[in-house]
From TrEMBL:
GO terms for molecular function: cysteine-type endopeptidase activity. One of its GO terms (cellular component) is cytoplasm. Residues 75-352 form the Peptidase C14 caspase domain. It comes from the Eukaryota. It comes from Armillaria ostoyae. GO terms for biological process: proteolysis. This is Peptidase C14 caspase domain-containing protein.
Length: 366
């Protein structure tokens, strides 16, 4: 898209404002319905713009989108996994690199503040980084807690593109409700899931409980300006289409193996006394430590599609495109962002959770 292209978001918002503001001299009162019809038509046109726009082309970069951003207060961990042994993906590594490009080229974040954990299908792609193994993911997240260079209330962005999975009750697989109080539990799928470690133990997924505990621990040390972006889904269907970012649970590592792995990790942390076991029946997520942006609802599918520059996640492409729109920069909350994304995605309904979801976006000044 050329640099002087019309900003469809700005046009839509201005049209809506003029049509609804009290006393706006748009039409006589008897034609007020016509103004509403015009706005509705504009919204339809706006939706069609996204419906027919090519994914995976370089998102439109507004040259005025990045102003007064203090990049010295930013840190990021970017995880992208394509090379799963089962159901490999094709756009997750490129999604993580797209996020890296946005953070460095648009926001001006120093590359030294970004840690990439990748699992490319081609080992030669695209640069040498630590692999996205279970141990590397957990250890890298935990390292934020004790990083002396991260000041309190610095912005921390954690991005994940890969498969997700959901564990239902193992004791009653066909029951409507779990009898143990543990399920359902969602999980991220590391590159080495369901393989054996050096001790011969099967490597499990990473439960959402462990991730939540990690974010809580980070927030206690560094503040709650933590944004977790997940381009994956947790669909429980046994039949999954090509390019859908969810997969079945591990065959060799059970739900309890996954939770016990988290408990064992935290027993060796610097402050285990504050740890609330993920095996506890009264475990509850801490919703004030971070904001979560999800690609879709639980019953929907996060997809990747092919464009001119290869495969990419539909959600990630739309997200970066929206973040680069300067008109939303100084006023957009996480809730506003999700409402904007909802217009641009077909078949996926993005979600935002967390007590701080009505705060301004992570890259905005106060």
């Amino acid at each position: 898209m050329p640099g002087n292209a019309i900003n469809s978001v700005a046009v839509l918002e201005e049209a809506r404002r003029r049509a609804t503001v009290t006393g706006a001299p748009l039409r006589p009162a008897e034609n007020a319905k016509g103004a509403g019809d015009d706005v509705e038509n504009l919204e339809k046109l706006y939706d069609l713009h996204f419906e027919h726009h090519e994914y995976c082309a370089t998102p439109f970069l507004n040259q005025n989108a990045v102003d007064s951003v203090d990049a010295s207060r930013f840190w990021a961990i970017l995880i992208g996994i394509d090379a799963y042994q089962e159901n490999p993906l094709r756009g997750c590594v490129s999604d993580a690199l797209l996020m890296e490009s946005f953070l460095t080229n648009d926001l001006g974040m120093p590359e030294g503040r970004i840690q990439c954990l990748l699992g490319p299908n081609n080992p030669g792609d695209p640069k040498s980084t630590p692999t996205a193994s279970r141990a590397n993911i957990v250890d890298t997240l935990y390292s934020l807690v004790h990083n002396p260079e991260i000041d309190r209330d610095d912005n921390i962005v954690i991005y994940y593109a890969g498969h997700g999975s959901t564990y239902c009750c193992p004791e009653r697989p066909h029951a409507v409700q779990c009898c143990s109080g543990l399920c359902p539990i969602k999980a991220l799928c590391p590159l080495d899931r369901d393989t054996q470690d050096a001790d011969g133990k099967w490597i499990p997924n990473i439960s959402d409980r462990e991730i939540n505990n990690l974010f809580k621990c980070i927030s206690l040390a560094k503040g709650n300006k933590i944004t977790f972006i997940a381009d994956c889904c947790y669909g429980g269907s046994s039949s999954r289409g090509l390019g859908e970012r969810s997969m079945r649970t591990t065959e060799n590592a059970s739900l309890h193996d996954m939770l016990h792995a988290a408990d064992e990790r935290w027993k060796h942390s610097s402050n285990p006394s504050k740890y609330h076991s993920v095996l506890s029946k009264d475990w509850k997520p801490h919703m004030g430590s971070h904001v979560v942006l999800m690609a879709c609802k639980n019953f929907e599918t996060a997809k990747e599609e092919q464009g001119h520059n290869g495969f990419c996640g539909v959600f990630t492409w739309a997200l970066v495109h929206a973040l680069r729109l300067s008109d939303w920069k100084k006023k957009t909350t996480y809730v506003d962002l999700v409402e904007l994304l909802d217009r641009s995605l077909s078949g996926q309904t993005p979600l935002v959770t967390g007590k701080l979801k009505r705060k301004r976006l992570f890259y905005q000044t106060a």
